[in-house]
Records
---
Amino acid sequence: MPDLTSMKNIGAEMARKLAAVNIRTPEELAEAGSKNAFFRLKTLYPGVCLVHLYALEGAVRGVEFNELPPEVKADLKEFSGALKGKGGSPR
């Protein structure tokens, strides 16, 4: 079974953090989705930022984070901002 570091944008440190929130495989990350995974990370690691969310979305889509379409980045930025501003939960 491939590990998280086999995915684009996921290095050893991100894989370690994801494991800490019970996401240990590419399948588990895909099932959780980038927003849910980010919310879980933000709860345990408040310092994670928008770039981490982009990286997670890119990993789920199998693309480099800087290749995400502008509308996807805008949606993720709004989601991240909502978490910062309201301490909200994933949609």
---
Amino acid sequence: MKSIITVLGTDKVGIIAKVCNYLAETNVNILDISQTIVAGYFNMMMIVDISNPSKSFEVMSSDLENIGNELGVVIKMQHEDIFNCMHRI
């Protein structure tokens, strides 16, 4: 099972490290990652494998949102199917 994680906000040191460390601690594998910085704004999108996480989807989503609050960025986690439906033309 896959999930999409997005991170958006003002660029600062440690955003990628904090998110990736959390994912490693919860047994979530990063399958693909893309990040850009435009005029000081950080944008990252990750596709992750949540087939065997150590926490429930709801807990991980909440934890990532809290990490985002600590960093001053917005972090959202969505199931791949929901993400695809929302972005279908």
---
Amino acid sequence: MQNGMYTDTESCVRAVQSKDARFDGWFFTAVLTTRIYCRPSCPVVPPKPENMTFYPSAAACQQAGFRACKRCRPDTSPGSPQWNQRADLVARAMRLIGDGIVDREGVPGLATRLGYSTRQIERQLLAELGAGPLALARAQRAQTARLLIETTPLPMAEIAFAAGFSSIRTFNDTVREVFALSPSELRARLPKKKTGAATPGVLSLRLPFRAPLNPDNLFGHLAATAVPGVEEWRDGAYRRTLRLPYGHGIVGLTPNADHIACRLTLSDLRDLPVAISRCRRMLDLDADPVAVDDQLRTDPLLAPLIDKAPGRRVPRTVDEAEFAARAVLGQQVSTAAARTHAARLVTAHGDPVDDPEGGLTHLFPSPESLAAVDPESLAMPRTRRATFTTLVRQLADGTLHLGVESDWGEVRARLLSLPGFGPWTVDVIAMRALGDPDAFLPTDLGIRRAAQELGLPSTPAALTARAAAWRPWRAYAIQYLWATDSHPINFLPA
């Protein structure tokens, strides 16, 4: 589905009548007779086409006076894949709003991060999404409030504060307006056994995604490259520490057939929406795998790989600066050596955390901490040492910024200007830290080996020419090509 597809009434009606879950999060159906809005896959009998109208966002539905359906819970649908596959102003603004910037810094802070005026941002968001940044942030606060109401025994006053509301009254009014129920009524509807978290201080959530999802390379990559103390694979879950705006957290993520089970421990509950957003982004949960696979399947040499194991995602990161530092540590060394280098830095310079379940001990060091490290203490060749120290120094002083709002082309150019940054390092950062779905690694040894085995061109120039037909999903093609190898990154740990 393309930008503005919610204006294609015929296509939207077909999706609603077929209850097509693939389009959940792409658009929302507002029912004129009942004044409720639903996701396309709502299980109730579809309304008559003349009673349907369509909106591009839940916030636009709410602004138009519609309330969320109690059956299909449209506020819990996967996010639109547009925001992770585009690099324009609206997409970058949506990624920042998802990261909680409006709640922390207001619309002026959003504008400053993007380098535009508040008027320009509001105008573009209204034009494409039917709602401005404040309304979009308000919809996110309402969703966070509902999560906390339904998954914790916290008092409502604490939930209001944690969800980002400025007062109890605003919290009550917003929840009632969006869900047609008061906060207390929302909690009362829950089965008694599900009220509250199973473990004190732990939030248990379900992260939805569009099927299919192949967890092998996604969790396999994260587990195989896990830095001791910061990450681990335990009892079928990938666990790691999180550096967050108000504090820190620990998350455990377990793949299931129809959702990712998420267990979060937070030092400050205000970080809940940010933590969820970053975990979803790390696991690429808002992708549209059918669209990606359909495009790649048009190449007859890729088609068998996709038919064998469809739904591969791109394993990303919860911290762009951390990933960039680790990419440099991993230059021209094995996965095991890169983990060892990173673990030494974590032990010496990471911030200690308390893990109630044991196993995790630190946050990955901040750029500021790494910039203060004595270069002579780094056990790596002099040239890579210079690359590493230049990177962390520029990240620490703000000369280089890596974030969800980054302009992919601009960051690429800045990285390429640094000593020791070649195309492979820049594109692996673009793919896994910045989230560019079209990042490509034609010089990667594993990719060249896979290409040769499949009968694809194996020289970088020829492979790049062949891969033009895979655009804009070349980062996903990389996952399918890597998966032809027996490396541990391609398999769920036993």
---
Amino acid sequence: MKFVLEVTIDKGKTAEDTVGELGRILRYWGGNLGHYELKPGDGSAVYDSDYQEVGQWRIDDGDAS
């Protein structure tokens, strides 16, 4: 299994406060992962604190790089 988190940091709140927003995203999704089976294909959009979509996380099968 491979956990992939992709966040674009060149717009919105994430660009204004990169460290703060990335920390918030990691804390939020770290706490929210219990709602998923964490199997390949699971994932969700990632939002900044203004609720603007800035990326996604997903579970891959781990075979691809």
